[in-house]
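During the reporting period the student researcher (J.K.) took over the structure-prediction task from the postdoctoral fellow and processed the backlog of single-chain submissions. One of the processed entries is reproduced below for the supervisory committee.
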Amino acid sequence: MTGVNAPVTMSDVARVAGVSTATVSRVINGHYGVSAHTMAQVRSAIEQLGYESSLVATSLRRSRTNVLGLVAHSFQSYTAEVLKGVMKALSRSGFDLIIYANSDLYGSYSEGWERRHLTRLSGTLTDGCIVVTPWGEVRSRTPVVAIDPARDSTAPSVTADNFAGATAAVEHLLGLGHRRIGFIAGRSSLVAAWSREEGYRSALTDAGVPVDPTLIGRGDFNPESAVPLARALLQRADPPTAIFAASDGMALKVLEVARDLGFSVPADLSVVGFDNIPETALTEPGLTTVDQSMYQLGYEAARMLKALVTGEWEEPRQIVLPTSLVIRSSTAPPKSTARS
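J.K. obtained the following structure tokens:
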């Protein structure tokens, strides 16, 4: 029986899967002659035990792997833009990059996903990892940098000035004459989501507009989470004249719901997002949004991680990048009379 701290072996995988070690080897190396059912059993055992094969053994023979990791829950437009910055920072650095993400594009979040991924990567496959929007505090045997960290996180991190960005978005809507402004929030465990809601509340309060809790919907940054929330807001007897969503993915879903319900954007409803992913410039109408320079988030995170791994980092371990408002055609002054 494997000890508490003993490495997982191929024999352990074979025992849990109920097959021979030769079968496990064939699955790992992609050889023919294994049924789909048996292959699924072996892969399930590998996942359950956190087993990694030859690459781990090779890395253990070296003091460093010269590989960095990027860990994300799923791979969406936001993560893709972050990755571009990471790759630029690592160009000609001598470090390779391994990307570890769930296969389900919009899969449901499960608490502790980042810890499970880091356990598989840190100290064996990689010298350090970048974790994108972790649920909670990230801890590892090797250096870790969080992009958009959890609230109260003490880990080295890179984030945008989410409060200032959200404030600018709501001030833009207020300047157009909107007073009933709905808000679709992100996942509450993230400092980005909390700061964006605080920015929304602060801008309304500073303008003398009461914050109406019934105009706030609780999403989780998954675009689909915005659909029922937007529908509930727009089917009210007194719908908002504008909606600010805490991410572009959710804002794009607001546009879809508005279209389905017969609202014209921006004539009947103004919509603002946050991120400035490429799709926002291509949709019709173009989405007004807050640019948080996802490329720069990735670049700075990789720059920090490289220096932490080599022991050369001497700057502050929490980097906050500026945001800017990008005004497109999804926002306009509200109608002077109520929509019939």
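The committee noted the following: Residues 72 and 276 are 19 Å apart (CA to CA).
J.K. will present the remaining backlog at the next meeting.
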